[in-house]
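Obj.: predict assembly geometry.
Materials: sequence records (below).
Method: joint structure prediction, all chains together.
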Amino acid sequence: MKRASWYLTAGAVAGFAGVLGLSSRTTPAVPVALKGSRPAQAGQQAPSSGSGGSTAGGNGSGGQPAAAGQAQSATGPVTPYGYGELDVRVTVSGSRITGVTVPMLRTAEPYSQQLAAQVIPMLKSEVLAAGSARINGVSGATYTSQAYATSLQAALDKLHRR
Amino acid sequence: MPAMPAGRARGRQAGPARVPAPTPRPVLAKAALLVAGTGLGAVIALTITSETGSGLRASGGLATFGGSLTGMIGTYLALLMVLLVSRIPAIERVLGQDGLVRWHRRLAAWPISLLVAHAVLITVGYAQAAQAGLWHEIGTLLSSYPYVLIATVGLGIMCLIGVISLRAIRRRLSREAWWLVHLYMYLALALSFAHVIVLGPAFVGHPLTRLVWSVAWLATAGLVLGYRFGLPLVRSLRHRLVVAEVRPEGPGVVSVICSGRQLDKLPVAGGQFMCWRFLTRGRWWQAHPYSLSALPQPPYLRLTVKAVGDHSASLAHLRPGTPVLVEGPYGAFTRHAQVRPQAVLIAAGIGVTALRSLLEDLPRKSAPVVLLRASRPGDLVLRKEVSELVRHRRGQLHELVGNRDQAGLDERSVRRLVPDLHRRDVYVCGPEGFVTSIVDLAGRLGVPAEAIHHEAYAL
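Observations (raw structure tokens):
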């Protein structure tokens, strides 16, 4: 048929533009939250929370206001991602992140549990190396990584506010 | 002979004459192309929007993204390949079964290559991300990711089918063996479906996308079942064709005359073919395409076949009363394709069968020029019928008998026989080499591509 490729291309452009237009309006919550929290500069804020001696007394950890070198912990909100949901608990000692754990992990299927179990240690070491929530994430587990980073960032923000 | 039932089953305005074949609507084929393109664009956009910058920068991110993209495009093209051979009547009428199959053949290597690339890229990307060896990662993918194992089996089947479809290998296989193996493509696609939906980044957390994708595949499956199996079955049951007579027409050529019910309601255009399945012990499992050599004359339907393979040769021994299942009619080699007032019809060898029924469909006084080519006088089958039809339409008939040097069709002889060829539509039917040479010739003589119509016989 004549001009077959023309019709095909016209359709492709329309379909491409249509989906892009739709998705920019209805982007899923996870990436948006991540983009919002990312520029918050976790690495620089954590020290200020430590050295500033924290305005309100930390309710959970230690009982004493955080002095430099004293460990403080906070837990981020439960963050859903495509395959399940998780939250992240972070421990900051002075200006350094000294521990990250995942107290709650719930997944839709057993395999996702397996996958998360593989991925979470990798994310943990990324965070400890970076000293912040600004991590590259684990390829093949993009959504898990995003949820992890989001919850972690929120936990760090909590500590900062204290 | 079964009696013709009185009264029409469906009260449309068709007169006592046959139901004509529906007119092809090229706009539908264009709309289908637009829709196919839209889907392709949407699939690419979905894959891109489901990826994030951080994901791309992560180790293995690029390979994984490439894997998603090739996987999605490959799967979507596979869907289009299935649609191309699903015999949707509205599209088939415009492009013809052989036109659709040609597209299918031309494009089929793409989805398979893309899906192989998908498997490789995903494995490499995941291995980089997990900092694992390739072999270890392959094991992980197959054992711990859901549905990846069966999808891999599906990909293996696809590759096997791709390999046997390579020209060099395809030629060595019998039509039936090749066709049977080809059917496994449906199984391969079904096996791969689940892992796409469950693992594809464009689908996870996007229930709407999942729904649309599933509906598209279900609809495709429905079209295939309906038009490849349902409609032929309904037609076969409705017309209840049986072999009435087998008549020799020339050396190695027989006409099989079938009788059936309500053949006035079979929408046939001259020049079309059907796939025939003769229900005898050795033949019931294979359907072969043969042209109708005449428009239906209720209660009769005629096909004319030359013995070139096992199946066509065996038709001479068909017994009257043998039940027949049919598929079709198919083909865009009809008068509907004509874009100019007058036409020249050219056939070589057994190609005369399609020409004969096409000629019958042309209006009176349409003054067609008909060229028949054969190596020996005996091979000019149906010549009396053709000459009578030509006479009734005030046309001219030229018979060219002999070897190619004496009676071939070259630029000079065609110019001499049909001086106004460049102003006519050209219909050509015959063996593949012959058809190609005439199509080239007509193009050189100034006939535009849309006025050249052809149907080649693949042996």
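Conclusions so far: Confidence is low (pLDDT under 50) at residues 1-16 of chain B.
To do: check interface contacts against the pulldown list.
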